[in-house]
Structures are given as C-alpha cells and as structure tokens.
UniProtKB/TrEMBL annotation:
Name of protein: ABC transporter substrate-binding protein
InterPro entries reported in the protein's UniProt record: Bact_solute-bd_prot1, SBP
Residues passing through the membrane, by range: none
Location relative to the cell: Periplasm
Species this protein is from: Paralabilibaculum antarcticum
Domain of life: Bacteria
Protein family per UniProt: Belongs to the bacterial solute-binding protein 1 family.
Chief place where the protein resides: periplasm
Amino acid sequence: MIQLKGIAWDHPRGYEPLIAASKEFSKSNPNVDIKWDIRSLKEFGDMPIEDLIGSYDFITIDHPYMGQADANNLLLNLRKQIPSDVLKMHSEHSVGPSFESYNLNNKLYALPVDAAALIAAYRKDLIADFGLSDLPKTRAGLFDYYKHLPSDVSVAWALCPTDFWCAFLTICAQEGGRDFVKDFTVDNEIGTAALDEIKRHLEFIHPESMNWNPIQILDKMGEGNEIVYSPYLFGYTNYSREGYAKNLVHFTNSPVNPKHKISTILGGVGLAVSSQCKEAKLAADFVNFVAHPEIQEGIYTENGGQPGNLSAWTSKRNNDMCTKFFIDTLKTMEDAYVRPQHPMWNSFQEQGADLLHEGVLKNTESERLMKQLNELYKTVVCNG
C-alpha cells in the first residue's frame, strides 16, 4: 500500500471534494491511500510552503506562491510529469486566468482545482421585497445604492486584514490597470485614491465589516436578515445550495470601473505536489485526475467543491444545483486580476495587509499609508 498525504483548508469546500476525489482515485488505484489534513484559511494564504513540503505530498496553494516555489525549488514541475496535450486541454478548460496563474518561467507548479475571485453576494428574497433588485454595476453606483436601503438592513464588506488587502488591490487594478505594481512599488496616486474610497464606504456599510472575512458575512446572510448585499467577497457555492443554510444566498458579478476590462482579484486553489514527494509520477497523476473535466463537473462539485474547470462552470446541472452561482459570476472570473508572483510577494502582502488595515482603523492619512506601504515593500524585497 502506497500512502500519500495532503493538506487542504478548513472549510467543506476545501476538503470534502478532495476526500471524495481521493476515494474515487483509489478505485482504479487500489494500492494507493490518500489522507488529508486541514489548515485554517489564514494559514492557507500566509503559511510558507517550506513548512509543508517535508510533511505532505499534496499542497493546496494560492497562486502568488509561485515565485517562492520557483526560486526555492519547493514544488514539482508538472510539465515534466503530465503530457503536453493533456496540459493543453486543462489550459483550454480553465476558468479565466486560473491555469496561467500557476505558470512561472515555463514551469507549471499546480493545476487549478478550485476557481474564485471577489464577487458579490445578495439575499434575492429580501432585496426584491425592498425594491432594490437593480444591484450596482459600478463602484460609483454603490454610493447611490446605500441611500435606498431601509434602516434595519446593511451592506457588508469583507475587510479583515487579508480581505481588506484584496479589496484594496481590486480597486487599484480597476482604476490603474493590471500594471499598477511596478518595480516593487504600488502606484502611490492610485493606492491613495483606493484607500480614500474605502474610507468613504466605511461611512455607509455595516460597522463590523473591518472585522469580518467572507465566511463570517455569508454565515450572517445565511442565518439572519440583517445583511442584504456584499459587493466584494470570495464566493462559496455552499451558500447557494438548498439546505446548506437557513436562507439561500445568491451571487453575481461585482461592481467594476467601466474604463477597464478588469473585474476583481483572482483567488482559487491550485493542487500542487511537493518537490520532496517520493511518488512524483503517481502524485502528478492524482493532480491530473482531480483537475479533469469529468471529475470537476461531477464528483468535485457534487461534494461541495467550487471547481476550476470551465465545463463545470457552464454545466446546467451544476448551475441548477447552485442557483446559477457559476454562470452568474463567470464574467468576473474571466476578467480577474492576477497578483504579482515574485518570491517576496507573499511576505509583503501579509505585512502590507496588516499595515493598511491598522492604518485605516486609526484613520491615518492615505498618502502617508502608501508611503509606509512602499517603504515596507522595498524592505521586504531587499531582506529577501
């Protein structure tokens, strides 16, 4: 018996589809047993890969880690293990830039098994009752939308440090295009304007927004009637499935800036293989298996997964099961912004998120915050 071990993240969307896929893989590979551990969502975004590759064969990973993985030889290059025609198929079936986000220097370090970006969540039943069904299409339209809300309901943003960072980058990308980060510098003017805009929103949105992550907001929407809309959070199909929560949550595309064909920041999950894995070919076969359109559209989605494969997103069956979650947010996925991939980006974004979050809580002047942010950026890169 060959034992392989993987680490997923602590949400049913993160581990249940991988467990189901592992069982299915073992049917045709009865000598293989795959076990899964879990880590918190914050650890998924922040924990260095170096802490994992010695203990796990499979690692679920966020795409900005590619620079770190490439520089330090942490993950298996799947181009050497999976035939090029198969990889071409995966590329053609990618949801938006998901597949390409795991490529760096002509090496492929993961396959997208989960696709996500910041999208909008709403309580369709409540906003219909209030006559607010015309959801904002642009960021400017958000401010008008706030004015029409009844006093006993709220709009919420996910703005805990990690998610504040995602909202900040989203606004920057929508305003400045995909290259607002250059030469280890975030454009000062664009960043300052983005921070000022977020501060303006804080005057209208739920006062707990600065403390909440997407799951906390979606739990509130699923169980109570206080929050009717959230314009920027990472979506979870679980809440759009009948019976998962008391109330059904619907999802749609986030507000944008019509000047640029850019939606929101890309998230999602890649399934990677540790460079220290002793069963490299077998492990790569499993990654290929999980990412295959048939598995993604079927077993993976059926078991609470949010697939990374386009055929799964356009499947009528899956959209019926998830109240059109996939087709209603596909435009956001197609136009998503991909974060930088250089080796020190993850260290910078973890520290930068805390810096901005704390600064806004203290109402620090935005221009001063941007100066501190770019000084931090240079320090992190130089020390790295």
